[in-house]
Amino acid sequence: MNTQTGNRTGIHLHEHEARWFAVYTRYKREKVIRKRLTDKGIETYLPLQQFVRHYTRKVKVVDLPLINCYLFVKITKQQYLQVLETADVLHFVQPARTLIAIPDAEIEILKRVVGEKIALEADRNGFQSGDTVEIIGGNLTGIKGILLENSSKHNFLIELNQIGYTLQMQVDPSMLRRVSSAKKTSTFGAKTKFRERSAQ
Length: 200
Known about the structure:
By secondary structure, this protein is mainly β. 12% of the residues lie in helices and 34% in strands.
């Protein structure tokens, strides 16, 4: 069991203010750990996607984690060890030596995006690959990201800096507004990507 303590917990853990962090779990134990932590009174968030599985004699709807082995917890400093001591929790996700809190805004983006069924229908509308754009319609209004191009489709990329992932999904160009052109945008560093998919 990982028992990260001392200065390595960093300044982002607060005595009284609960903040979001990510923990790394054993494979396929995300839902079990979520229940264990909830039973301890710890707020959690597990982004799930719904998929339809077709078997020989039945059709089954399953909810699968958007990010395998990731679970988000909102904790104070006093709850840190409670999380680590929970069975099947391996360790906190920390990109550096210091444990860094995830901004509420990034968690809210995840909550808004998960479950949205987004399909491409419109034409090019003058957008270019690399443009910084903003969604101006639907439940995701106000979210900004980078527009990618994949064959005849448009893919919208949202970077979640503290989580360390990017969301990539298809967005109808008619629901986008250009914020800045490609030549003025910076290139994203290498990050793990996952595609937002609707239930089939």
